[in-house]
Each structure stands twice: as structure tokens, then as C-alpha cells.
């Protein structure tokens, strides 16, 4: 049950999965066009593009859809993020691509990120093998993919548009930083382009969103729930009460700080998920629920009779070797940080109930003592230096964010240049713009028109 909890806190979650939650009707609408045309293929990639003496290779996966393509039409390359791509995800995303740029006769590609899914440089990687898991090498994979596609005679006159959401939104923008001559236009949805170790702003936005689209009273109720829990955890009698309320295993020592932090992670999930992936109506509905009696966020398939919140026994089960969560944790510990803490006074989830130290310890426990805070700081600094943080040097790139999405705090919210605009959507959440839903409100629909106009202008369509 803890895999989902930890994966959400440490990661953004790939936007294709979000599309599956929103797009069932739209998938049906477009499946007769797309599903029959999807083809899974692979391309050979170097494990290390930047070491000429290293000739090792692996196969990375991608899907193609050529149903609408006509000579001269653009190549739309959707970059995968921190998870596997699948036919259904491609089908959902393809529906969005069809709606957005159908009249440009595009060739549609969805490219899987190295190490995730079937795109494995190593079948059973060690921690040392993970040194080839980086955004820079992932971008080099995309560049090789584009060169290979463009090498085909039928794409001689095709412009290239890269699209990505969440972490993959970063990659779309960063392709214009590192490979501007290969990419004609980039669409970066909900991309947290600023690497940051202590991402305390995340829960500030969760709080502000519930206040804005719910009510101040709702915020007070949630704050009271967490303050009460934090107070009860200070005494043996209170711990006994908390264990009974949340079915925590009797042998779990809830005086251990990390065990308490696991509890708070579980308690926070309902609110964080509803904000990051919700809409104003979901927030209103949340605030109609009895806040103080909301259950823990947990996997309904859990067959145990009690919840084991023992950090030392659970942490390795959460981050099982070779899982997407293990891989993404490595990237956060070495490149991005993104550690969501409750260290700010402007959030409603208690005082430092999830401290930065929790994440710093987890990096060391999972990957080794050398993955310490100094290494995290250096990785964050290197990332921002390489890509430019909140001011990447790009053109023909549109940055899109929603006010409800906590990740917008690390994104580009204002125009960087006439050819690097920002679209900020009120009442919109994580990657909402990149999914297709006929019931979206006017703000989202208006934003999509702007995005489409930018992309068409930049490719001369």
C-alpha cells in the first residue's frame, strides 16, 4: 500500500496516467482512428552518448501513429517521463494530439524514457548502473531519435514539435536548450524546470487552493485534524488512540520520528491528490466531507489487518529495485530534489510533520551513504546551471501551468521572450491542458487555442 503513497510524494507522476483518469470518453471518441494505427518499435541507443570509447547499447521503445501523416506534415514527439509508456496511454495522448493539430497532418510518436518500462540499459541494474539515468542522457536519446526519424526521406520537410507534461515537460523545454537546431517548437506542460531541494511551496499551494476553491473554514478543519494528530503523538495515551483510529500495527513504535512521518504522509494524500489532479468542483466536494473523520489514503487491495508504519522495514519494500519509484527517487536524489516538506508556516498540515531530513535519510538508506545532502545540493545546482532554472534560454517554446497545480511554483509563469510565452490557467491542475476533455471549462479551452496558435506559427502551418 505504501508504494502509491511514496511515489506520489517523491514524484510528480507521469501525465499520461492522469490522462487515463480524465479521458475515457475521449478515448472512445478517437480510438477508431488511433488504436488501429499504433505500432510498438524500438531504436538502438548508446548507454553513454558522451563517452566515445563506450560502445554499449540498449533498445528504447516508442510508439508511432502515421494515420494522419502526409508529406510535409510535422513530427509530433511526445516525450515519456518517469514511467513506462503503454498502448492505452498512447491512445489517450494521441486523442489530445489529434484534437490539437489534426489539420497539420502530423506523424505522431511517443518515446519512452531510458530505464523506465521496456527501455532498459540493464536488466537488473545496480546503484552504480544508475549513473546513466539522467535527464541529460535522456535528452541525448531524444536527439538521436529525432535525427533517425529525420534521416528518413519522407520527413525531409517535416518540422519537429516536442511535447511533454510534468517532468517530461521539463525535457520538452530542455530539448530547446541543448538541441535547438533539432526542434522547431516545444510544448512544456506543468514542467517544474527549477530544481529545488526543499520544495516547501508544494503544500503551501495545496493549502491556498483549498482555501480558494473550498473555504477558509475547510482549511481550519484540516489544520485542526493535523494539529490534533501531532499533539496525540506526544504521549503514550495519545499514541494508543492514534493507533486505534488508523489500525496501526501494535508492534509499530510510533515514538520513532520516521514512523510518525509515514503516518503524516498517508494523512496528507487525500488532500494533495485532490488538488494536484482535481478541479474546483472536486475541492468543493472535498470540503463537504467530514474532514476530521476522513480515512487514511491506502490501497484497497491491502490484505493485512493492520498498517505497518515501521520506516526501517517498509522503506525497501516501497523502493523495490528496478521499480519506477526506485528509479525516480534516484533522479530526485541526484538531479532535482523536489522534496515536499511541511516546513513552511503557510500550510495546514502541522509543524514540520514531514521535514527535509526525512528525504535526506531516505536517499542514503536506499542508495548508500555517499548520497548525502552535499551530493543532493550539487546535483540541484548542476541541473539549474545546465538548463537555466526559471529562465531557460529558449525560443519557440510555450510553458503551460495551472494555478491549482502545486508544481507551478517551480515552473515558468511569465513570458521569457516573445517566442517563449507562458500560459497560466485559472482553475486548472497538473497537466490538465495536455489531456482532452470535451467538458473542460472556458479557461482551459481558451488556453488550448493559444497553445495551438503558437505551435502552428512556429512551424509555419
From TrEMBL:
Give GO MF terms, alphabetically.
dipeptidyl-peptidase activity; serine-type exopeptidase activity
Q: Give a yes or no for keyword Phosphoprotein in this entry.
A: no
For this UniProt entry, which residues form the secretion signal? 1-19
In Gene Ontology terms, what is a biological process of this protein? proteolysis
Q: Does the record's keyword annotation contain Secreted?
A: no
In terms of superkingdom, the source organism counts as Eukaryota
Q: Which UniProt keywords apply?
A: Glycoprotein, Hydrolase, Protease, Signal
Q: Which family does it belong to?
A: Belongs to the peptidase S28 family.
Please identify the protein, giving its name as recorded. Serine protease K12H4.7
Origin organism is Trichoplusia ni (Cabbage looper)
